[in-house]
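Dear U.,

Please find below the material for section 3 of the report. The protein was modelled together with zinc ion; I have listed the sequence and SMILES used, followed by the predicted complex structure.
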Amino acid sequence: MNIDLLLKGGVLPDGTIADIAIAGDTIVAIEPGIPAAAGEAIDISGNLVSPPFIDPHFHMDATLSYGLPRINSSGTLLEGIALWGELKPLLTEEAVIERALAYCDWAVSMGLLAIRSHVDTSDEHAMTGVRGVLAVRDIVRPYLDLQIVAFPQDGFYRAPRAREFTIQALDMGVDIVGGIPHFERTMEDGRRSVTELCEIAAERGLRVDMHCDETDDPMSRHIEQLAYETQRLGLQGRVNGSHLTSMHSMDNYYVSKLLPLMAEAEVSAVPNPLINITIQGRHDTYPKRRGLTRVPEMLEHGITVAWGQDCVLDPWYPLGTADMLDVAFMGLHVAQMTSPDDMRRCFDMVTTETAKIMGMEDYGLEKGKRASLVVLDAGDPIEAIRLRPDRLLVVSKGKVVARRDKQDTALALPGRPSAVSRRFRR
Ligand SMILES: [Zn+2]
């Protein structure tokens, strides 16, 4: 067996221990005690090895622009959109590319190797970002898969030329059709925008991923239209609703009708817990709504759900590190998913579940799949969420792209060990 890279003794997410043999960009064997001599062998024994993290919801055109031209003082979605409107005319393609590439470096260092990014297509200024992110998609292709969503952020009908530029972006090679029905001027315009955008996707054979009902208004019910159009146009399994925060505030009877409709239409969901817990509920006094959509309930109905990051250091969010374990950690808390099964599921919701939503068929730690993976200083997926630990090794498409030495903290305490790692039952 010809092997270029052999990883020895890693702990797979299901707890089994195996060696992983890689030739070219493919996993050629995954089993205990692979004897073959490799180009390079790396001992990862005792450490969790997982398929890479995936972020199904991001904004690459705005990332790392925090403070440009000013900071969001109210912390609301609407001020964020207004602030982005001030920044857009100042964008240059070079600056967008530079910031996005810097972000992709962070992502790779955290084992985050596939990202679905929305890009604004509302007006001519936004198109600078579209051109920049399209260029970045080509540059990072050898090590990071970037899917791009045409996103008429100021409203497909509300912004006078958003329709024209959204279609132009798709003609330029943007992969997916987006939308923002709750930001249109009327409920009826929101409903119509869902219909027309889904028709555009169906005609072009594209997937759909909409910012949908990102509001605390329980009457924002565009997800219903999105599920209906998915079935009408035969788009089952190819449509995602992002955020869906209004569902948090909806009437329970209505939700009991809505969730089966979503399941039947095979519409997936991407909540963005870091952003939703920060931005929603800003108009409330107390009690203050969390604004996260109904994650455990959707999972019970068999709906595919994955955690998204949404923002890092941009007009909407002042923090972020490209660590999908931060996202899973926050989601687990806000959705109260604290049973062992639920915690484990939160890890799947930044790895395998996300791959389903993104249609990544070559993803996973299996023979014959693409050799992309991450090794973490943790013993299992739950511990990975608890510690959000160092990424010791990142392999993308067969090549080592990031590496870090394990470093326990040295202690100087009388009668205590000389070092501590915070791992549990190691
Ligand atoms: Zn978003």
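For the text of the report, you could mention the following: The first helix runs from residue 77 to 87.

Regards,
Y.
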